[in-house]
Amino acid sequence: MEKILVNKKPPKKVIEKEEVHYFYWPIELGLLRIKLFNKNINLPIPIQFHDYEPIKVIKSNNKYIVASRFHYNVLLYFNNPKLLNKKAIADFSFGSHSPYIHSKIDSKLGSIISPTLEAVELKWFSLLYIFYQQIVSGKIDIEIKDTYDYELEEEDIPKEIIFDINKCNSIIWLGKTPEERDTPSDIWNFIRE
């Protein structure tokens, strides 16, 4: 599988399994908001051990496409990535490690939300969508400074971690409006349903 570049340092371990690269962090952080002396303070707290973020690079019609997921059931689809040395560039958010693939300036943002998405998942979906929207509109600039390659390891990962597009029930896409001729069939089938 094609590799990507990582803006800032990649995690110490990246595992390749069935044409997907799993970026591994030993701990995922969330934020706990507390009120202390009449001030709201956000404290990072561990919410999960063994955090795997999948990235799959797909070459379709001589174009690079990157797929990932958010919270196991939201497909992230980037079909207009910026390339450096013919590789897409990823950033992972602090703590939760949600992936963002740097996309070209003319990129647009869209989504399909499943009515079965639970309220808490809808909240996180909305926050990620707003974050991507801020990037697309130029209100947030994630500068590409130092990019890094990474070494791949082969090892087993838990079965529930395996990236399976068919298990996703919602999608956020960033890039060009998806069209059948430029979209891998499993992703296109998901979009048109």
Structure characterization notes:
This protein has 193 residues and is mainly β. It has one domain. It is built from two helices and twelve strands; from the N terminus they run E-E-E-E-E-E-E-E-E-E-H-E-E-H. It has helices at 119-136, 185-192; strands at 5-7, 13-17, 20-36, 39-60, 63-70, 74-78, 83-84, 87-92, 99-101, 108-112, 147-148, 170-175. The protein has a seven-stranded mixed β-sheet, with helices on one face. Strands 1, 7, 8, 9 and 11 form a five-stranded mixed β-sheet that branches. The protein is globular and about 60 Å long. The mean pLDDT is 89.
Number of helices: 2
Query: Structurally, how many domains make up the residues?
Result: 1
Which percent range fits the helix content? 10-25%
Structural class: mainly beta
- Give me the strand/helix succession: EEEEEEEEEEHEEH
Distance between the termini: 28 Å
Q: Main sheet, how many strands, which sense, barrel?
A: 7 strands, mixed
Q: Reading side by side through the largest sheet, how are the strands ordered?
A: 2-3-4-5-6-12-10
- Integer-rounded radius of gyration: 17 Å
Strand count: 12
Mean pLDDT across all amino acids: 89
**Fraction of residues in β-strands:** 35-45%
Low-confidence stretches: none
Using the alpha-carbon principal axes, give the shape.
globular
